[in-house]
Design goal:
alpha/beta; single chain; Nucleotidyltransferase, domain 5; 5-stranded mixed beta sheet; 315 residues
Length: 315
């Protein structure tokens, strides 16, 4: 049963934008996803500009319609989206996915297509950042002062929070750390700790016919069953690689907690031991954990962007 709505509660529309899905929900300032407001819409990462913007506008309009039926006032829209992106101004700089909106000012397009006031609060942040904000608000990394959030999926995203504040590289809102292109072996880290990296390494070890497509999820399922030694090895290697790459940054930033999100992290148990073995010498590291809510933490974090913005005005 839902809790009664507090008179003082505020409500935000949260979006988590990925290369294949847009997730959205209405979230209250006391940290609840309102009943019947969560929605997941499939999108094509290589669609043309008009189609991508129409998808964004549609899920936002649907959210406002749902809020209207519940007699709720949506005070702002928080959006988690991959980079590269000009988060301050709402301009996409992505070419590897959602390339159709490269150079587009999404904030202005949303305002125009949904019919919002130009001063309406819309905030963008890196998808790894909203994930970490959500986990520090509602999940596994609460009560830690120095937290590193890692998202593993089609790529690797990293965000760092210190004393309740996300630390950025500069005024553009870009993440402090970029790990995807760190050199590793004959390539870069993302060649090994991403969905394509898992598939590539598995095919290399097993000699599997590459004309028969297999997914990272299917490889994880084989490893969980415990009979496919190549699948097990792929994830053990993934944990070891992550540990080696993260170690110098953890020492420099004095990280106390690492929390993992993204679809690959749903298989955290498969790479947890080798990861922890690599990092056992870090004295200030107290916790390494899978997120408490991989699917919903980015939405909580996107909503928190709005509530934090409103709180600034109250000071």
């Amino acid at each position: 049963m839902m809790k009664p709505q507090s008179f003082n509660n505020k409500f935000a529309l949260a979006l988590d934008i990925g290369g294949t899905f847009i997730k959205t929900a209405i979230i209250s300032s006391d940290g609840r996803i309102l009943k019947d407001t969560f929605k997941k819409k499939k999108v094509g990462s290589q669609e043309e500009q008009k189609a991508i913007i129409n998808n964004f506008a549609q899920v936002i309009s649907d959210g406002f319609q749902k809020a209207s039926t519940k007699r709720l006032d949506i005070i702002g829209i928080g959006i988690g989206i991959p980079g590269p992106f000009d988060f301050k101004n709402g301009i996409s700089l992505m070419k590897h996915k959602l390339s159709g909106i490269y150079g587009v000012n999404l904030k202005k397009e949303i305002i125009k297509m949904v019919g919002l006031n130009e001063r309406y609060i819309i905030r963008f942040a890196h998808d790894a950042e909203v994930f970490l904000i959500g986990e520090c608000w509602k999940g596994a990394s609460k009560n830690f002062n120095r937290v590193l959030g890692i998202t593993l999926g089609t790529g690797i995203g990293v965000s760092f929070m210190k004393d309740g504040q996300i630390i950025h590289k500069d005024d553009s809102g870009a993440p402090l750390l970029t790990l995807w292109n760190v050199p590793y072996g004959d390539g870069i880290v993302e060649d090994r700790v991403s969905q394509r990296g898992i598939v590539s390494r598995y095919n290399e070890l097993s000699g599997e016919n590459t004309t028969v497509k297999i997914t990272a999820k299917e490889i994880a399922e084989r490893a969980i069953k415990g009979k496919d030694i190549f699948a097990i090895q792929v994830f053990k290697e993934l944990g070891s690689i992550l540990g080696k790459v993260l170690k110098p940054f953890l020492s420099e930033l004095k990280v106390e907690c690492i929390v993992f999100g993204g679809q690959i992290s749903k298989s955290f148990l498969l790479f947890e031991n080798t990861l922890k073995q690599e990092l056992e010498s870090i004295p200030h590291l107290k916790k390494i954990s899978r997120a408490s809510s991989i699917d919903f933490s980015p939405l909580y974090g996107a909503a928190k962007l709005i509530f934090s913005e409103i709180n600034k005005y109250k000071r």
